[in-house]
Amino acid sequence: MNSLLSRALELQHAAHELMYLGMDGEPIYSDTFCRLNKELLVKADSLFSSRSSNIEEEANLCLALLMGYNATIYDYGDKGQKKQAVLDRIYNVLEELPDSLLKVRLLTYTYGEVYEESMLQEAHSIIDNWNTSALTIEQIGTMEELKNIEENPYPFEVI
Asked: What is the pLDDT of residues 6-18, one digit of tens each?
């Protein structure tokens, strides 16, 4: 199966794996690190021009691209432009996407890129409506990711 959604989910998984490489206490080998970075950039670039008319599939695709471009260290000189194009797509998707785990994940990763307070507030508003006694592993992981981004904002420079 090589559908757009399956490729987007595969990219999300690979980006998450690279972002958390070594966090389990296992050693990080430079050849593995370089290989994963290269594979991730190739996957992201191969999906960059793809689009979907299905809002949830498009949201997953945008999330995958943003995660992929943020996770890799490689850049052929156009990664910043591609990330901005993905962010532009995300703003359109967020307007149509219903409140869901996917929307919170998209808000979380986008907030981690642009630090717009309204995104943080919207993510927390959706999370506040979740049944805390029946949270899924994915919901818990997303809440932890959002907390991590809030507590450790990536340093950026205002020009």
From this structure: 999 999 999 999 8
Alpha helix positions (H), the chain:
4-19, 30-47, 55-71, 79-96, 101-114, 117-128, 137-151
Residue with structure tokens 């966090």? 23
Element (H, E) at 109: helix 101-114
Each residue of 33-78: pLDDT tens digit? 999 999 999 999 999 999 999 999 999 999 999 999 999 998 889 9
Distance from C-alpha of 104 to C-alpha of 85, rounded to nearest angstrom: 20
Protein fold of 99-158: 1.25.40
What value, to the nearest 5°, has the Cα angle with vertex 23 and ends 17 and 29? 75
Domain 1-97: CATH superfamily, name plus number: UpxZ (1.25.40.810)
Q: Which of 23, 68, 67 is nearest to 45 (CA)?
A: 68
What is the reported pTM? 0.89
